[in-house]
TrEMBL record:
InterPro entries: AAA+_ATPase (IPR003593), ABC_transporter-like_ATP-bd (IPR003439), ABC_transporter-like_CS (IPR017871), ABC_transporter_ATP-binding (IPR050763), P-loop_NTPase (IPR027417). One of its GO terms (molecular function) is ATP binding. Gene3D superfamilies: P-loop containing nucleotide triphosphate hydrolases. It comes from the Bacteria. Keywords: ATP-binding, Nucleotide-binding, Transport. Pfam families: ABC_tran (PF00005). Residues 6-241 form the ABC transporter domain. This is ABC-2 type transport system ATP-binding protein. PANTHER family: ABC TRANSPORTER ATP-BINDING PROTEIN, ABC-TYPE MULTIDRUG TRANSPORT SYSTEM, ATPASE COMPONENT.
């Protein structure tokens, strides 16, 4: 396999008009390369086109135009190989209530044509912590267990690429951590490329090496997580004065405010104003500093700035 697990070129999807609904251009020419071995985040507001993109990768939605290569296999030329290279954990808990976890994994392996001798059902049951529920009916499993079973089903054919659509939406913290531990292990030990969509920006920041932000069917940013955050120019300096004093005069370009706990906060563009100049202005005003710290932007800031900019331009 080359450098990229996924290569997408000029991908479009238009859902046909139905009733009074006009046609919907859900993807408007997406180009995207996802490096093999990475944990890659797809972010975007509701309706941005993330599920459409994932469902095209999974072979569940038919694209309108463009090229998709999965693990080097063109979806149109080698549909079977490209499908065998990817596993998808869907958003909905669509599990047959009459199957046991073991049966569900076996059936799924059958669907993917995995011969009995190559099945790793017990290993998967162990990895997803459902060993002791292997023979229970799915209808008796908790929501968290069903979700883990969905992860297990996505792994039966040992795909090179694992796609997770909002894997931790509405999931409690304990289960979330367990899912992430599983996913990290797959990535580190087996080199599985992970693609995930999430609404939890903190999670994306913590988990993902690289991120693409999708808005209105277009990729509006794609970079390493740290570079995306580094792109934000705003910086905030928070200073706690020793005594209660009024806000000092600041150089032009610095926005000042005072927080409820008496701390001053100064926000400025780090490309234009040095932090030292802000500190100097505070000292010059005769203020004794008890505590000082900076607040760096996070993914939330990047996301809000990028998606609102685009909205304004549309
Ligand atoms: N089957 C469909 N028929 C018509 N329009 C659709 C269909 N599926 C999705 N859409 C529309 O396409 C656009 C993109 O939807 P999509 O579900 O891909 O977005 P998303 O980014 O995954 O959003 P969410 O985070 O809410 O799942 C939306 O405007 C949606 O209403």
């Amino acid at each position: 396999m080359g450098e990229n697990a996924i290569e997408i070129e000029g991908l479009t999807k238009t859902y046909a008009a139905s009733g009074s609904q006009p046609p919907k251009h859900a993807l408007k020419g997406v180009d995207l390369e996802i490096p093999a071995g990475s944990i890659f985040g797809l972010l975007g507001p509701n309706g941005a086109g993330k599920s459409t993109l994932i469902n095209i990768l999974a072979g569940l939605v038919v694209k309108t135009s463009g090229k998709v290569r999965i693990w080097g296999f063109d979806q149109d030329v080698n549909p079977r190989q490209s499908r065998a290279s990817i596993g998808v954990m869907p958003q909905e808990l669509n599990i047959d209530p009459f199957f046991t976890p073991r049966a569900a994994l076996e059936v799924q392996a059958g669907l993917y044509g995995v011969p009995k001798s190559r099945r790793v059902t017990d290993r998967i049951l162990k990895a997803i912590g459902l060993e002791d529920k292997a023979e229970a009916y799915a209808r008796n499993l908790s929501g968290g267990m069903r979700r883990r079973l969905l992860l297990g089903k996505a792994l039966v054919h040992r795909p090179h690429v694992l796609v997770l659509d909002e894997p931790t939406a509405g999931v409690d913290i304990e289960l979330r951590q367990m899912l992430w531990a599983n996913i990290r292990r797959l990535n580190q030990e087996q080199g599985t490329t992970i693609i995930l969509t999430t609404h939890y920006l903190e999670e994306a920041e913590e988990m993902c090496d690289e991120i693409a932000i999708i808005n209105h069917g277009e990729v509006i940013a794609r970079d390493s997580t740290s570079a995306l955050i580094g792109r934000m120019d705003a910086k905030t300096l928070v200073i706690h004065p020793e005594e209660e004093v009024a806000l000092p005069q600041m150089p032009a370009g610095v926005e000042s405010c005072q927080r409820a706990d008496g701390a001053f906060c100064f926000t400025y563009r780090r490309s234009e104003i040095a932090t030292g100049a802000v500190v100097e202005a505070v000292r010059k005003a005769g203020i004794v500093i008890r505590d000082i710290r900076t607040e760096e932007p996070d993914l939330q800031d990047v996301f809000v700035e990028l998606t609102s900019e685009k909205k304004g331009a549309a």
